[in-house]
Amino acid sequence: MKILQIRGANASGKTTIVRQFIEHNGLALTFEKVGETELPFYVSADRKIAVLGRYDKTTGGCDLFSGKAQVVSAIVYAARKLRAETIIFEGFIYGKSFAFGNGLNGLAKILGYEYIGISLHRTIESAMRLLLERNGGKSFSTENLLRSMKDVEASHQKLRAAGVKMRRVNTDAIPYEEMWKVLQGEI
Questions:
Q1: In the chain, which stretches have pLDDT less than 70?
Q2: In this structure, what are the phi and psi dihedrals at residue 132, rounded to the nearest 5 degrees?
Q3: CA angle at residue 115 from 5 to 40, to 5 degrees?
């Protein structure tokens, strides 16, 4: 049983990979009451796979959740109530934090799961090109993007040094229509 966190800076391919995975595996959107809040999950018919977040909007993932505590609650819900064998989530906010990733590794062990961090990388040039397209030609701060890329890489290295299973994927090297296979290979 696995918890897969897709990590990466803006325009690294996090939402694309998960959205394609959902489509290729026929996962259905459902809303589950977690605490006092209805949260979105995409689940397989056999409930073996649960993906946290929304993917029917332009931006997706858990960035739409109200905070880290809600993400953690959703993971626990997927493990304990849905009994999903594989729990997948992504979000920019959570993808650059060593403390959050290390905490998830501990939570996964408590729940009886293996935590795997998948860090997505691409060149600054291709990320800037994608951001310009996504933002309708509006510029995006190169400095902010570089800082985010460095933060993701630094947390990746720290997590790996702490013994957390980490995988690095260069999304520039994957044909767009095959990005979902990054996740399929971990199931």
A1: 59, 92-96
A2: -60, -45
A3: 45
| Residue in the structure block whose two tokens are 């897709």 | 6
Per-residue pLDDT, 102: 81
Q: Name the DSSP class of 176.
A: G
Number of Cβ within a 10 Å radius of residue 139:
9
**Taking CA 141 as the corner, what is the angle to CA 135 and CA 145, rounded to the nearest 5 degrees?**
95
Distance CA 84, CA 73 (A): 14
182: Cα within 13 Å, side-chain hemisphere:
33
Token pair 């090109």: residue: 129
pLDDT tens for 150-182 read: 999 998 999 999 999 999 999 999 998 999 999
The predicted pLDDT at position 66 comes to 84
> pTM score, two decimals?
0.92
Domains of the chain (ranges, CATH numbers): 2-181 (3.40.50.300)
